[in-house]
Amino acid sequence: MRITLTVNGRDHALDVEPRRVLADVLREDCRLTGTHLGCEQGVCGACTVLVDGEAVRSCLLLAVQCDGRAIRTVEGLAGPDGTPHPLQRAFSAEHALQCGFCTPGFLMLAAGALESDPAIAADPERVRALVGSNLCRCTGYEPIHRAILRAASE
Amino acid sequence: MKLPAFDYLAPSTVPEAVDALADPGRRAEVLAGGQSLLLDMRLGRAGPGLLVDVNGVGGLDQVRVRDGALEVGALARHRVFESPAAAPGPLGRLLALTVVHIAHPPIRARGTVVGSLAWAHPASEWCAVALALDAAIELRGAAGARTVAAGDYFHGAHATARVPGELITAVRLPLLGPATGVAFVEHRRTEFCFAQVAVAAALTVRDGVIAEARIGLANCADRPLRAHAAERSLAGAEAGPPVAGRRPPPEHPFARAGRIAAERDARPVPEPYADPEYRRHVIAVLVGRALCQASADLAAHTGHDRPGGDRP
Ligand SMILES: Cc1cc2nc3c(=O)[nH]c(=O)nc-3n(C[C@H](O)[C@H](O)[C@H](O)COP(=O)(O)OP(=O)(O)OC[C@H]3O[C@@H](n4cnc5c(N)ncnc54)[C@H](O)[C@@H]3O)c2cc1C
Ligand code: FES
Ligand code: FES
Question: Looking at domain A2-76, does it have CATH number 3.40.50.12780?
Fold first, then answer.
């Protein structure tokens, strides 16, 4: 099927089989490998991206379902001149990553939440529930929690 | 694992979707949120020849009050119910207390209430709520429209009264009156597990006496259940003051109802981390706790802030 994905502001005209999920098309067709695949079962959250501003699992969404939609991946966070996004600076400052495999998913999860509902930062319990969406197997969730709060206050 | 190949159609109206589903040559399935179906396809548990994506069907995302019930359209996502204002009164509170137990925000952004009813997992929170409230499931197939009561709908794990080719257009959840307190409690091993046991409760109190109790159980059998025996044990009992703490004393009607739910209503099947004996214990504790919380919810929403206005 012929579709157009607008990824980080750039249009990609693609011809994809319906069975291909968004994550695979982003990685293989758009060559944006920042979006990671861990479990491919909706559990780990490494594949989290924004579709029309909303954080979703790109392993449980068909690329053809995103025809004409605006997609944002971790590659779209930094400014045009490469300046890191406040969340990226905060993750670095709080040591919120070690191997970094989970990081793109956490960044997009947090970006979606902070952009659609900035008030979430005032409620640590909601941030805790948000962080619980994704898995990190090395750093631990406290630094990630702190990084999200730090970015929100910038 | 990658998904097996299938054909894909994205109709824009209900009649088109029903037509597409009636395809005799290909095994057609509805694609709603995809948060269970795409996973089942990856794991080889489902292999549809044709996916009928209903996400572009106009009007299916509606949530509205009609004839004393909340009508939840097939595309209403789980997350809509994170706000108690999505439904009036105690029903809105019950749905908001329930939804936080379902997966995580990114999955709740896609998954649908109706999809949960269609999938009919024994541990599904929405299925337990639908049973407790006597919900009505609205189906549309090539032969026309029909409504099935939740009590007649669940036939087993992932088995329902829906026949292949039928689209569920909506579920109707009856509104709850102001003299009703609600609760939803759940026990799970980790943040990422489905419920080991979950309990939905709605208690209606008139003149200090329990007029009606509704209790839905998730993962207490091979299918979601309603705890009829426990409910009957509560009808006519003194509501009494809210119980302090999380556990009612052993002779309290709530504790008794918990034991009845565990022994008479539940039919737990063995699971790797929870044998039936353990599960019965958890059911007794959680039903008691849910009833305490429902009565506390009622106290919190009547009396003080709305003096005298609420008890019929
Ligand atoms: C990591 C993870 C954790 C989860 N945790 C929970 C949890 O704790 N509790 C829980 O209840 N669920 C959980 N889920 C499942 C989630 O709630 C799904 O959203 C839900 O089970 C199905 O809804 P859906 O809209 O995604 O349906 P889909 O995945 O699109 O469909 C599921 C099935 O229902 C059928 N179907 C869907 N809509 C209709 C319709 N309108 N008419 C006819 N048939 C239809 C499909 O054909 C398919 O067979 C979890 C999922 C994931 C990935
Ligand atoms: S790869 Fe999508 S949630 Fe793990
Ligand atoms: S930093 Fe390694 S998994 Fe999170």
Answer: no
